[in-house]
Amino acid sequence: MSRGAHTDAARAIGVDIGGSGIKGALVDLTAGDFAGERVRIETPRPSTPDAVAEVVADVVSAVGGDDDHGLAVGVTFPAVVQHGVARTAANVDDTWIGTDVAEVLGRATGHPVHVLNDADAAGVAEARFGAAADTDGVVLVTTLGTGIGSALLVDGHLVPNTELGHLEIDGHDAETRAADSAREREDLSWEQWAKRLQRFYSVLEDLLWPDLIVVGGGVSKKHEKFLPLLDLRTPIVPAELRNRAGIIGAAVVAAELRTPA
Ligand code: BGC
User: Fold this and answer.
1) CB of 8 closer than 6 angstroms to any ligand 1 atom
2) Is the CB of 147 under 6 A from ligand 1?
3) 91 lines ligand 1 (CB under 6 A)
4) What are phi and psi of 88, to 5 degrees?
5) Cα separation of 150 and 230, whole Å?
6) What pLDDT sits at residue 6?
7) What is the pLDDT of residue 92?
8) Residues 147 and 102 in one domain
9) Contact 214, 129 (CB under 8 A)
10) Taking every pair of C-alpha atoms in the chain, what is the biggest distance, in angstroms?
11) Ligand 1, atom nearest to 91 Cα
12) pLDDT digit of tens for each residue in the chain (261 aa)?
């Protein structure tokens, strides 16, 4: 694969920081797909900023970052990220709160780094290249995993950090009942879990009136087990880019926000 600097105008690197793995790839921004191998390294434990930054730097080098330090790097983070700074830590080490993640990772990688919420990155990718590519208006992308992530897009523009997985529903933080981790932890049948999803998505559609709901996260590849059990007025469809969405979305946003040197 050729990765010469002159061919990198339509490329950027995407990195997805998850609870178990840190994954990255060089992304072809025109095709909306990987332009090389995906690299995955275990998330260090404890997942403190310094330890994670070191692994992110290794991932960036492994996918071609050393060939061109001008390549933009987009990184997803599973928490609220405001202007590069982590503001919450529902499923990551608490030491991240208040950390300027973009600055820490920029220093570690030697690249211009943009950091955004993981579900927001997935939402941007699905809106550009995936399940919501043909939908104007209000699109709600949710990721069902350890937690529940959300991305709200209006005519393709992201409203960042919506955190709808933490809506309080029936006295519970929604993700503690309806995330895929709750299904696994409580050994719920698809029918039992679908009842919880029904409640979650009914509240969302009554508050936001989206034109389309997209369901991502690892479990979305088994969508036929639970999406047909839901009765909603809003069309609800599985994500198309699945576990590539975060990496692709982060790369797209980083490349677009980058100010020319
Ligand atoms: C976090 C979100 C994140 C989601 C999915 C939630 O617990 O609060 O920021 O997007 O999990 O990782």
Assistant:
1) no
2) yes
3) yes
4) -135, 175
5) 18
6) 41
7) 83
8) no
9) no
10) 55
11) 7
12) 333 344 446 999 999 999 899 999 999 999 999 999 999 999 999 999 999 999 999 999 999 999 888 999 999 999 999 999 999 987 788 999 999 999 999 999 999 999 999 999 999 999 999 999 999 999 999 999 999 999 999 999 999 999 999 999 999 999 999 999 999 999 999 999 999 999 999 999 999 999 999 999 999 999 999 999 999 999 999 999 999 999 999 999 999 997 554
Bridge partner residues of 16 (DSSP): 23, 76
Q: Does 166 lie in the same domain as 208?
A: yes
Whether 129 is in a domain gets the answer no
pLDDT of 7 = 45
Q: Is the CB of 165 under 6 A from ligand 1?
A: yes
User: Are 75 and 15 spatial neighbours (Cβ–Cβ below 8 Å)?
Assistant: yes
Whether 118 is in the pocket of ligand 1, judged by its Cβ within 6 Å, is yes
Q: Residue 69: which CATH number?
A: 3.30.420.40
Q: Which amino acid is at 140?
A: L
Q: 2 lies in a domain? A: no
Both 63 and 150 in one domain: the answer is no
* d(C-alpha 197, C-alpha 41), whole Å: 32
- Say if residues 127 and 254 touch (Cβ distance below 8 Å): no
- Compute the distance from residue 7 Cα to the ligand 1 centre, in Å: 35
Q: What confidence score (pLDDT) does residue 219 get?
A: 97
In this predicted structure, what is the pLDDT of residue 201?
A: 99
Domain count, the chain: 2
CA of 117 to the centre of ligand 1 (A): 8
CA 13 to ligand 1 centroid distance, Å? 22
What's the 126 CA to ligand 1 centre distance in angstroms? 17
Residue 125 falls inside a structural domain:
no
User: Which domain range does residue 202 map to?
Assistant: 134-240
What is the CA(2)–ligand 1 centre distance, in A? 36
> What is the atom index within ligand 1 of the atom nearest the CA of 90?
7
